[in-house]
From TrEMBL:
Gene Ontology CC, one term: cytosol
PANTHER family linked to this entry: CRP FAMILY TRANSCRIPTIONAL REGULATORY PROTEIN, REGULATORY PROTEIN YEIL
Organism: Spirochaeta lutea
Keyword terms of this UniProt record: DNA-binding, Transcription, Transcription regulation
GO molecular function, one term: DNA binding
Protein name per the record: Crp/Fnr family transcriptional regulator
Length: 226
């Protein structure tokens, strides 16, 4: 790990994160002064479930998969995070072991902030704590919505919704994870995902020009599925 020079502060990942957006450049510099830079290779585990290290991880470059292991031993993908997203916040805000583990989907650069130092900053700058709570509330709501969809909606609905959400209005979707991970996140097997994608392609709604890429052919038709 390398520690950034406070005097030569480059906002970097700190400026990308919504919880720090209300801080001045000088205040962001104070955050940078307690931040360590970490490089993680694709496939490397960023942190493990059950550990008690109190650190906040902020992604500057790359993508990270957050997963949990059920009592039956099944891996469930919770979310995929990218630049500007943070993780590990529960171990900082609560004295409890981590309940999930994080794995780099790409080579990543991230900023690591020690938990106790972050708590001190939250006391000095309440906006950090408020925005962190807002983000946590949003994540809980998104997770609850996904769980309800996984339990009560058809595989076609979940897949169509995921494609549209990932598209961001574009006609081409590059999956941020493997199909196996996407299937896990959507609460289905990879075989079911592949079969339903083929059905959507046969219906003329999408095509799959290359691995990990989905092109939306008929957006209105895909929206009708949901």
């Amino acid at each position: 790990m390398t520690v950034p020079n406070h005097e030569d502060y480059d906002p970097g990942c700190i400026s990308l994160v919504p919880i720090f957006s209300d801080l001045s450049l000088q205040e962001m510099g104070e955050v940078a002064a307690i931040t360590q830079e970490r490089h993680v290779s694709k496939g490397e585990t960023v942190y493990f479930a059950g550990r008690t290290e109190k650190q906040l991880f902020v992604i500057h470059q790359g993508r990270v998969k957050i997963s949990r292991i059920s009592e039956s031993g099944k891996v469930q993908v919770i979310r995929v995070l990218g630049p500007g997203d943070f993780m590990g916040e529960l171990s900082v805000l609560h004295d409890m072991p981590r309940t999930d583990f994080a794995e780099a989907l790409q080579d990543c650069t991230m900023c690591v902030i020690p938990g106790e130092a972050l708590k001190t900053l939250m006391q000095r700058f309440p906006s950090i704590a408020l925005k962190a709570l807002e983000e946590l509330s949003t994540r809980v709501e998104q997770l609850q919505t996904r769980l309800e969809q996984n339990q009560h909606s058809s595989p076609e609905y979940r897949i169509a919704r995921a494609i549209l959400d990932l598209s961001g209005g574009s006609s081409t979707v590059t999956l941020p994870m493997t199909k196996g991970d996407l299937a896990s996140q959507l609460g289905m097997t990879q075989e079911t995902l592949s079969r339903k994608l083929s059905s959507l392609q046969e219906a003329g709604l999408i095509n799959q020009p290359s691995p990990g890429v989905i092109r939306i052919i008929d957006r209105s038709g895909l929206e009708a599925v949901i």
